[in-house]
User: What shape does this take?
Amino acid sequence: DIMWIKVFQEIKFPKAENQDFYCINDYNQRISLLEKPVPNCGMPSVKLNTQNLTVIEGKTITLYCEATGSPSPTIAWVFNNIVSKHESDTNKNPASFTIKNVSSSDSGIQIYCIAENTVGEDQASVDLTVFFAPNITYLEIPYSDHHWCIPFSVRGNPQPVLTWLHDGAKLNESEYIWTKIHVTNRTEYHGCLQLDNPTHVNNGNYTLVAENQYGKDEANISAYFMEDPGGSSPFYDHPGYIEDYGTPTNDFEDTTNNSNQVTSTDVSNKDNEDSITVYVVVGIAALVCTGLVIMLIILKFGRHSKFGMKGSVLFHKIPLDE
Assistant: This one.
């Protein structure tokens, strides 16, 4: 109780120089309350062995917590949702907390050391930082929004450096095509390769490469934005139709006879044959029309001659009056 009164006096009346708080001992002597020693009554104090708890994924790390106070405080470790296997020892001072085969999922977790006795409690905390190689968890075909977007999600710590390949060649980003991170969640990054008004030149295979000092990961996706105006093969809007520029994949490859495939030379020959056929048809039509005109002329003049003959014979048979 004396300790609590001293604390109350220090907090409520820190500048009161003439406060008459005192105790009387067995010899009837007055002792200032602030000068009165209180045995076996000390607030706990905790200290962690590090303020920067970092570890590489898959390794083991131990955190230590030292506590002082009177009476001796009890120590407890407090944390939330640690995936990795862990164990603690609070029977010793300093207490220990060991994490084995550390998972990257635990990066960013806060670990608390709390010391408590009859006088009060104290605590200290540290953030767990796990370094690990990049992992591309999501990469999908492009979709059109305000800009065209090839969406992706990447994990890694430190933050991976992202580069793109277009049909195997490094893609140089510009004001028309660039990488943008939209959402960051601790060690996970969600974003897009954004394209402004892409054309058939942008069709092809895209490779995302994510790299940091602990490793590298890559993933591929085919993208189609516009049909090649100079191409002879049609394109169809499904995820797996692009191998190279202007070359759609064949979903029915096992049942297709390659001998029936049409080459550009076949298409050219077919066009020439079609042109010759048209000329022949037009020529025949012209001949038929000319023949019809000639027949009409013959019939017309032939009919007049026939009437003339009949008239001559008719008049020849009528007897003339003498």
About this structure: Residues 140-223 form a domain with the Immunoglobulin-like fold (CATH 2.60.40.10). The mean pLDDT is 78.
